[in-house]
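Page 47, continued from p. 46.
Same chain as before, 519 aa.
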Amino acid sequence: MQPQSIEAWRRAEARARAGGTIARDAFAGLLSQPELEVPARLRLVALDLEEGALQAATAQALAAAGVPEADPVLLLELARRLFDLGEVVAGLRCLGLPAVGLASDPAVHAGAGSMLADLSFYDLALEHLQRAWDLGLRTPRLAYLCGMARMYCGAIDAAEEMLEECLRRDRDFMPAARLLSTLRRQTEQNNHIDRLRAALQRIGGSHPFVPLVHYALFKELDDLGETGEAWGHLERGMVARRAQVAYDEAAELGLFASLQRWRPAGASSPLPEAAATPVFIVGMPRSGTTLLERMLAAHPQVADAGELRDFVCQLRWCSDRLGGPHPDAGLVAASEGIDPGLLGRRYLEHAAWRSGGRSYFIDKLPTNFLVAGLIAAALPHARIVHMTRDPMDVCFSNLKALFAGAYPHSYSQEEMARHYLRYRRLMVHWGGMFEGRILEVGYESLVVDPETEARRVLDFCGLPWSSEVIGGRTRNGMVGTASTVQVREPIHRRYLGQWRVYERQLMQMQALLATSETE
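Result:
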């Protein structure tokens, strides 16, 4: 940066300390200086977000993305902002610039890879993570991220190798140990149980990695049929994880109540005729959504877009309301006044590129069940497929899955059951409001008679029959979900009734699920 630009930036920083419009004017005054335009716009984005002006912040970030920039660190910061604002294409464009790709600083590639992994672009992430490793950054965390990306890309042996490398560098980096436990079905001859037990003793009961060790031990002991000891670890893991994760059940009650009150502002205005048709697969996590995604993605007219955050993100943009990736009661209330057509167009503008020229694309984010009615109103041509599963099977499967940051209700039998009952009532509500728009598919039916169910789904979507959807081929390539290992197996019935192994321990949840009373 030229000396005069540095001095101009210092003067703007000094003025900005006064805050308010003075701060905004200070950075706006730098927009005419090419060297300072991107950092100045990034500061304006931050000021807009502080004021809750989501649409203005998005416009500033997109304007910054249109400015030539050669500083890889600035490009990383801009990409991060764009991703947070739901502008994925612009963010990917930033990370694809030569300034980032040719950077000699391994921290740049590690940062880019981490961001891309967060968005489930594991193939792109792996390129940057491996580059950071090759440039000499050899931290346990980087080894873990490389291993995780390899796993999601289907390179299980290579993933195992890098996760073991992580543990050689730091034997107590338990995220790697937890991931290793999920890569394969453990056997008496090949398991990590002794190592996990030793780690649990070594790190102590208050360490933040304690839940990871308990969940890993549950998984491996369960694989070996040691159900008594396995359950003890799952129970302790749930308690430890529940203490780490905030869960406001009252806020969730408010969200579900607001969703049941929600009504669209009016008829949706016309959507672009050439837009691909989205197929939303919704339901509880671990209900078989990834299995159905795998089957549909084998159809020659269907692209697999993965777990997208775009709908709720564009709902926030249309409502001009800041917040996280999940809806809340305030967002739902604010969205009642928006034009459904605008929301539909915004969604397609941000998601349909993933179709790759095919006529359909899959948006498989299970928790979109929350906004299924809003999807139906905003996208009249969209297909919504609701995967269901036996209540005990799906709730137990949630309990034994250690989620990164989502689903805070899944660390208590009672909270899990109450959440499930709310979900079921909401889906009945959406089905009544949008009759014929949501197809329900049972996991049990899908694995017992996949052809019949596949034909039903394809008919609902308006797709011709293709034997590829039940071709029995194992899944290759990238699968960016928690089911990445299981989904590579042929269709089978092994997971039917799994909860019965722990029927005695799950009596509390079973009793709650047996009632349909309101909370």
